[in-house]
Structure formats: structure tokens, C-alpha cells
Specification:
With 407 residues, the protein is α/β, with parallel strands linked by helices. It has helices at 19-34, 70-77, 97-112, 135-149, 202-212, 230-247, 258-267, 273-291, 311-318, 334-343, 347-350, 357-360, 372-379, 385-394, and strands at 4-8, 40-45, 48-53, 85-92, 119-126, 154-155, 162-168, 172-175, 179-180, 185-196, 213-223, 249-256, 296-298, 325-326, 397-402, 405-406. Helix 7 (258-267) runs antiparallel to helix 8 (273-291), helix 8 packs across helix 9 (311-318) and helix 8 (273-291) crosses helix 14 (385-394). The two termini are 36 Å apart. The mean pLDDT is 91. Bound molecules: adenosine-5'-triphosphate and magnesium ion (MG). The site of magnesium ion has 4 residues, from loops.
Length: 407
Amino acid sequence: MRNGLLLKYGEIAIKGNNRKLFENLLIKNIENQLRSVGDYRVTKEQGRILVEPKTIQPEEGASSEGTSSVEDAIPVLQKVFGIVGISPVTIFKDNSLESIAEHTIEFLQEEYGGTEHQSFKVDCRRSDKSYPLNSIELATEMGSRILDVFPGWTVDVHNPETRIMIELRTRVYVYAHTIPGPGGMPVSDDNKAALLLSGGIDSPVAGWMMAKRGVSLCGVYFHAHPYTSDRAREKVIELARRLSEYSGNFRLYVVPFTDIELDIYDHCPQDEITIIMRRLMMRIAEKIARREGAEALITGEDLGQVASQTLQSLVCTDAVCTMPVFRPLIGFDKQEIIDIAQKIDTFETSILPYEDCCTIFVAKHPVTRPKLGRIEKSELLLSNVEEAIDKAVEDSEVVILRRGRRI
Ligand code: ATP
Ligand code: MG
């Protein structure tokens, strides 16, 4: 019976002196994320991490309901950055030949019971060198016992479809297949960035990509009530909730943006409203980022999709920022972005047809090559910008998402 999960973590294993820090961070993140599904023991051992459900022995006759399971942990671990592979494992104490054979067969029946034909190889490792059989003898013995039970299977030592691992340590570990993890680096509160999160396809993907590199997230959403509906706001909260399954915590600021948008709309040249609006978004997002201890901004911008995303528009937008602005989608085609959105499960929410403030207050013929000097001049037509920015930040609603839950 599989009673644990062995986790492999590739990239962080090569980080020299920082390795311990990264391992501890990864373990902490795993513990935090697993808390939503049960009670697990997470331990580090020899370049791998072991996850075992803490089983409370049910009293005789009582149901074991409520006991944490290996199955429940897998989908959660597939969202913890830093994990490269997840192998279900059976772990037991008795290292006699009979016991190893029995557990191995039972494990294979559970994992591959319906598989008529497959090539396999048994690999053994033993840290206890006093064991009566050496690794090769043990592998050969187990191989023949497996063939007795699965007569359609064949041994292939060079290119097997399945590699069955048997490791003798203080306990015995048997595992075979590896479920891919999300890769990346463990998310750290020490690296935080504020994601400008709209209800579109792009910005959730941009946030996910930064979280994959170990950046923790907070979010800023500009809401133009009543021009944008409550359903549009709920949609963005749902996207933030989905992102928080990867990033852990996610504090989303819902910024009241109507007054500022109307001010721009009423006073600035029509062809410049999009770019001016974006510059104000950045200024507000920076204020919120500072308040949240974030050191950079993230947007879902991509070169050339729309007028506001030409190189000159990005230059004009950046000119108002003092923080670095990360645009991880900059080199992607739309289809590549959609592929990731589908993989991370934000796509279906993103395509719900609720309006965004940018689509309502949209310039009919926006400038595609804005000149910074002209834009700055037009912004002087706005009244009390600084106060309006401060007020928008102050009046923001903060929605807290934690590990896939809204609290
Ligand atoms: P998305 O699919 O993320 O909405 P998009 O291709 O529709 O992006 P724009 O609408 O021009 O492009 O927005 C570019 C970026 O600006 C977004 O990816 C997002 O980071 C930010 N943004 C736009 N509108 C909002 C909003 N209402 N609230 C927060 N951020 C926004
Ligand atoms: Mg959009």
C-alpha cells in the first residue's frame, strides 16, 4: 500500500551554500499548502523530501474517515513550486526477503494492476551493507518474483518502461513512477511583487510565471463601479484565489478607479486616455506595493497586442514608475499564453464575458507612438492627481486569499 510520497527537487539541489535555506523554505511551503487537506509529516532525507500522512489509528470498529491520505496530497503538491517529481512510495520496516517481495508485489498491483504488458527493471540500493544479498542479487530475486505474478511483463535493463526502485535504509522504500511537479523555485516572502491583475487571460499567467521563480504575490485590481459590475470584481477575486493555490498568500486590493477614469476621460485628449490611465494605474500600484512590502510590479503586457502595448507605450508607462516592472509574457504569442492559462486552470475564469474598465473607457483611436513630453503635459489637465491617488489607495478594499481559500 502506498503510504508516502517521495519528492524530488532539481534546481534547488544545485544551489551550493544556499541549499539548506531553499530546502527549509520548500519544506515550510509544503507544510503550509498541505494544511488545507490534512495532517502530514514532512521530512528531509538525503536530497529528497518525504511526505507521510499522520495516521491517527482509528479505534477498533470505528471508520478511518478523516485520516489524511496520500491521494489528497498529490494535487496540492503539484502546485508547490520547487518540486520536480512526486513518487508514491510504500515504506515498511521489515527488510526480510519475504516482506520486501510481498510489499513490492502489493505496491505494483495497486499501481499497475490492469497493465498486461510492460517492460521493467528493478533497481536496488542498500545503505546497510551487511544485508545478506547485494543490490544486484536482490534486484534479480525481486525481478523473478515479479515475473511470477505478472507473467506478461518483460525485463529490460537498458530501456525499461518502468523502473522499480527498492531502497534499503533504516526502513525499506519501494516506488516506481514519478508524477511531474511544477518545477521552479520555492515561493519566498522575501521576494514580493505586486501583480496588476485584470480579469483577462494574460495577467494571471504573468503572476504565475513570477511565482514560479520564487516571487510571492499581492494583487491590484482597478474597479470602475458602476461601469464595471460586481461580477467582474468577483471574477478577479476568483483568479486571485486560483493563483493563491500556487503562491500561498495573496492580498488583493480592489481599487475604486471610477473618479480617476472619469477625470481622465473628461479632461485629457481622447487619443491619450489609455496611456494616461495606465500611468496612473502604475502610480497607484506602486503605492500599494510599498505598503505591502513588495519591491516590483508585474503586468500581463505583451509587445504589440494592442495600441497600449507598443514599445513606445511601454516606455511612457515605465517613465512614471520607480520600481522595476516585470512583464514575463513579453516574448510570448497569444496561443502560448492561452496554453499556460489552461494548464494552470485560470483560462475558463478569464474568458467569462464580464467587462473590464479598460474596455469601457477605451480611446477610439489611441496614439500608438505616444511622446512622453506630450503625455506629461496632458496629465497637468487633471485636478489634484496626488490626492486622487492617495484616496484610491485609502479607499481600496482588501480581499485576502490563502492557499485557495477566501478568508
Ligand atoms: P489581460 O489579459 O491581463 O487583461 P490584456 O492583453 O487585456 O491583458 P490590457 O487590457 O492592455 O491587456 O492590460 C495590460 C495589463 O495591464 C494587464 O495584463 C494587467 O496587468 C494590467 N491591467 C489592465 N487592466 C487592469 C485592471 N482593471 N486592473 C488591474 N490591472 C489591469
Ligand atoms: Mg485586459
